[in-house]
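fold-stage: in
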Amino acid sequence: MKISNKVFQSILFCFFLLFSISVYSQTITVSGLKTWTDTEIEINKGDQISITASGTVFANAIVSCGPDGISNRPDWDVYCVVKGKPHEGLIMKIGNSEAVFVGSSFTYIAKQSGRLYLGVNDNDVWNNKGKFTAKVSIMNKNDGTFYNITVPGIQTWTDTKIDIWKGQQLK
C-alpha cells in the first residue's frame, strides 16, 4: 500500500499533537474603570493559567492599591464581585463561571472551557481610575485525544477541526 506525501504529513502532525505541550503568553491591560476586560484568550478545560500582575488602581481620589487589593476595608465588601477578598484586587473568570481572586500572582487549572476575563474586584467602578498590567501564560497539555485526520489527495485543503489561537506556536 502506497501512502501519499500529504497523508503521511497529516499522520505525523497528528502524532505531534498527541505528545505536544504548548505555552501561550500575552500581556493584558486591565482598566480600573471596567469590572471585566475581555482578554480574547480562549481557555480549554485542564489548561494551566498563570498570571502575574502589577499596576495601580484608585478606588477613589485618595485610596489606591496594587493587584492584591485593599484588605483593610471589610466595609467595602458589599462592593466586591468576589466577596471576602480584597476590594479592587485583580480577579478573573472563564466564560460565565464564578469569579476568583487573582491578586499579583496566581496559578489555576481551568475547570471549564471558555473566554478568559480579567477585572477589578469592584462592582461599582464609576469612581475608579488606573489600571493593572497582567501577564497571562497558558499551558495547554494535550489531553491525549488522538485526532484521526484523513486528507484526500484530490483536495487542496482539509478542515482539521483543530483550533489554533493567535500567537500559539506549534513546536
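fold-stage: in (second)
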Amino acid sequence: MLHRALFGSLERFIGILIENYAGKLPFWLSPSQVMVCPISEENNKYAKKLFEDLFKESIKCEVDLRNQKISYKIREHSLAKVPMILVCGKKEEKDKTVTVRTLGSDKQETIKREELMMQIGGSDSLLWVSNKENDADAARKFCRSKGNSIEGGTSEIQLNIIAKRVLNLPS
C-alpha cells in the first residue's frame, strides 16, 4: 500500500468513520447495501432477477447462490454488517414478494417487490443529477415522489438544488 501525506487525512477520516459506526455504516455509505439470499437452488432464478432489478436501480447489491442453509447465510451476512438481507423462497417467488431483514433488527418483513424498489430507491439513496435529459426526468420523478411539485421549465441545475434540499444535503 502506498502511503503519502496526501492520502493520510483521508485514511484517518475513513478509520474514524468505521470506528464511529462500529462497522455498521449507513445504507448509502455501505460498500454492499443489499444481499439477496435464495433459500434453495430452486429459487436462484428469482434471486438473480431480483438482483438485476436492484442493480438497475443503482443499488450496490450481491447475490449469494451458495448451497448452504439459509440460517448460515443470514448469520454470515449479518456478521459482515450488510444493511439489508433479502430472503426469497418458494412462497416469495409465487407471491412476487421478498422477505426483508435489516441489520440490527431480528424482525422480518415480507413486502411486494415493487414496494421494496420504491422503499430502497426513495428513502436513503442519493440522487445524482448531471446535464443529461434523462437525469432531469429522474430528478423530477424523485422530487414528485417526495411530495414536491416541479414546474416543466426547470433547468438541470435548479433540479439538482431542489433534489439536495429534499434530501437535506449541503448545496
